[in-house]
């Protein structure tokens, strides 16, 4: 297909496709004339993946280039090729600097959390970015004076595992690696608000049962405050 | 206690406490002299709650005032007094305008999601803000061409329910209403990154087992892309 059709079928503008070509994210097409090239389904798949990394995954061009480099490197297996994309998704939480007063607390919490995961037998890298996110959240909660026992972490982890199994099942259902990476990025990012919304709805249901109440009344808060 | 001690014990600056007094979020203290007033533990609790609503909960002064109005109104039960705070937390997703081309898709999805919750027997309000967040996320996924069967919603909902039961147990452990509202806001908001980080770690573990691999290698993406 020509560039115009590639653009139409991918939903990515011609100017943007040319930008990805210049940045080396997308391989050049097969030259047909001095000014035209032919693109195939592989270009289309790659373009969809690039779009997912940049728009859904919020990555920079440079991060997307790194993900694609790993995806294209036969030295890596499927686990690593999918994993590197997840590792680059936001939020990227940096540990505190060496002279930060929060650093000892951070280090202790990071170690505690790694121990919880190790006790569960989880095969995760000690340097996984998500352990930094987890550490930041627990340190913040505790700094504000809220208790957060490690047993909560364990219970949350156990509740998340079956969800991850279902999700990985969907992602592994894509035989073509690029489609699997695209699906992994899309479902990781876009399902987050779904999970969080369902947690809030579950809170409402549990509270309604606990207090044997109906759904929260459809109050008019503006009206309430002015009454 | 005097204003300075109230400030010290709550961690809220004197200027900010005065601002809350002017805005009517905090009740005036008992006058001692023409220029001084006495504050008690109830002021301290209220101040901590205000801080949680505004900083952790990201509410505006006006939203916080609405939450406090419901908390103080004996016409409402505990379920509603806790629920109104949750209803005002971000994200607040508005349905599309009547002339938005996405509106029919939105309406159909909103109805499907309400049906899923009804089938589960969940006691939630059809107007719950979290149903809007859920609808927005599902509409976005589908608009990008990703399948999102309603059975996923059901599975996610079932996985979230036991988590919500544990969390409500903690919140209901606070006998004083203001502390319960504060805990509800804090745990709802601050535990979200914890859940999401554990989901990503669970993905890594499930993938490692599936591919019988170790943890994702601690690659140096910068080095990879330049090799």
Walk me through this protein's architecture.
The structure is a homodimer of 227-residue chains. By secondary structure, chain A is mainly alpha-helical. Chain A has one domain (40-215). Helix content of chain A is 65%, strand content 2%. The first copy, chain A, contains 11 helices and 2 strands; from the N terminus they run ααββααααααααα. Chain A has helices spanning 3-10, 14-22, 41-56, 61-71, 78-87, 103-119, 129-143, 150-172, 177-190, 192-210, 221-226, and strands at residues 30-31, 37-38. The first copy, chain A, has a two-stranded antiparallel ribbon with strand order 1-2. In chain A, a hairpin with a 5-residue loop joins strand 1 and strand 2 (37-38). In chain A, helix 4 (61-71) runs antiparallel to helix 5 and helix 6 (103-119) packs across helix 7 (129-143). The longest helix of chain A is centred in the last third of the chain and has 23 residues, at 150-172. The radius of gyration of chain A is 23 Å and the shape is elongated. The termini of chain A are far apart. In chain A, 41% of the residues are buried. At the A-B interface, helix 4, helix 5, helix 7, helix 8 and helix 9 of A face helix 4, helix 5, helix 7, helix 8 and helix 9 of B.
List the helices and strands and how they pair.
The structure is a homodimer.
Chain A: H1 3-10, H2 14-22, E1 30-31, E2 37-38, H3 41-56, H4 61-71, H5 78-87, H6 103-119, H7 129-143, H8 150-172, H9 177-190, H10 192-210, H11 221-226
Antiparallel strand pairs in A: 1-2
Helix pairs in contact in A: 3-9, 4-5, 5-9, 6-7, 6-8, 8-9
